[in-house]
Amino acid sequence: MIQIHNFVFNPFYENTYVVYDESKEALIIDPGCYEDTERQELTEFIENEGLKVTKLINTHCHVDHVLGNAFVKKKYGVELYVHPEDEATLRSVEVYAPAYGFSDYTKTEPDQWMNEGDVVTFGTSSFEVFFTPGHAPGHVVLVNKEQKICIGGDVLFDGSIGRTDLPGGDFDTLIQSINEKLFVLDDETVVYCGHGGSTTIGKEKASNPFCAVKK
């Protein structure tokens, strides 16, 4: 059974997820930990739960989701998985991070690519990779249909959607991603968002002011 624990890190109030199962193998998804206190909070949870981190995953590579990449890679000796279309997004963070106050940001290189239809495994569990551009050119979400879980990054929020005014963003593309990749999931699927609280596919299909669909 997949378990999910989230932390809210950095001034963007970004959700970092530790996902694990009964095997105690774990994924770290979108580590936004920048301050030492944030990194300590993450490591203490992992230690207290007796987890073994096996992979580091970025749903996309905007600054608030990658601030802890270098720390996690070094601390746990894991590889970084991103979609190839977001490699340039990741590389650009080094240039603009100081302008956001992150002067100590350490760049990282991707180790493995994730593409549409790939399967990310850990312990006895797995997620399917869905390619969902629009907020970022290489955005992906991770879906486990059996347990009705979606790690959604910044595609779909509770009553909102990801912004599309950043480089590589496109509103029409984002709406297409939501309609074709997320709204085909079971209505009871829980979406664990990159910011704010979680929501469900059914709720957003019925009432999201940007992308609700008629029933």
Automatic annotation (TrEMBL):
Keyword vocabulary terms for this entry: Hydrolase, Metal-binding, Zinc
Required co-factors: Zn(2+)
SMART domains xrefs: Lactamase_B
Span of domain Metallo-beta-lactamase: 13-195
Record protein name field: Glyoxylase, beta-lactamase superfamily II
Presence of keyword Protein transport: no
GO molecular function, one term: hydrolase activity
Source domain of life: Bacteria
